[in-house]
Write a structure and sequence with these properties.
Elements (H helix, E strand, L loop, with lengths): L8 E4 L9 H14 L6 H4 L7 H12 L5 H19 L11 H10 L3 E5 L5 H7 L8 E3 L12 H10 L6 E5 L2 H9 L3 E5 L10 E3 L7 H9 L3
Parallel strand pairs: 1-2, 1-4, 2-3, 4-5, 5-6
Helix pairs in contact: 1-4
The chain binds 6-O-phosphono-beta-D-glucopyranose and magnesium ion.
Amino acid sequence: MSTRPSLEACIFDLDGVLVDTAKYHFLAWRRLANELGFDFDEEANEKLKGVGRMESLEIILSWGGIALTEEQKQSWAERKNGWYLELVEGMDPSEILEGVMDFLEDLKKNGIRIGIASSSKNAATILEKIGLSGHFETLVDGNGLARTKPDPLIFLTCAQALGVDPGHAVVFEDAQSGIDAALAGGFWAVGVGKPEVLSDARLVIPGFKGWTWAKMESALLNPS
Ligand code: BG6
Ligand code: MG
């Protein structure tokens, strides 16, 4: 009898995996830092990817050595979100990253369950703008989640909703925090982006262009 593990589900991060909203989060956070009198670069921004809104704010304030009251923090977080929403206002389906639609179609054809696990409280808004609402069996977002990435809770919640054990599910992530969360939860982790940033992932791909489920399954189960 074969002991080959079966992969039954794919769980996708949203920002930076299905659509390039990661650049808009970066622009809005950078504007906040600039208004507070300091700056940070794309390398530092890697530490913010995947992390929830208030947790991201805490990290940025620590970089600037700035102490704020809870009320001030709420107010700055709301300003950042306002800038972010202005940046994503005009988004449409053309911004879905290359290869994503074909890959999703192929997963459906192969009977693979699909879900989204995004730390963003704006995930449903973005999915609506890019025409992907209703494409996924389940969406777990940053609303009402006790802990965001790197905690595995978001992926475990998504896997439970899909009725699949973590050992049979693949997580696609562009963030270090997301890869850490996936591995902590016992998932198969695929990095979408640069290998040097996502070095702990089992496999790193630059994007979904050219990937079928058969190719992905083979790359994961028979690594060279
Ligand atoms: C994650 C992004 O998906 O969501 C982070 O990678 C972002 O950059 C986080 O800060 C929270 O998003 P939001 O939309 O709730 O502020
Ligand atoms: Mg992301």
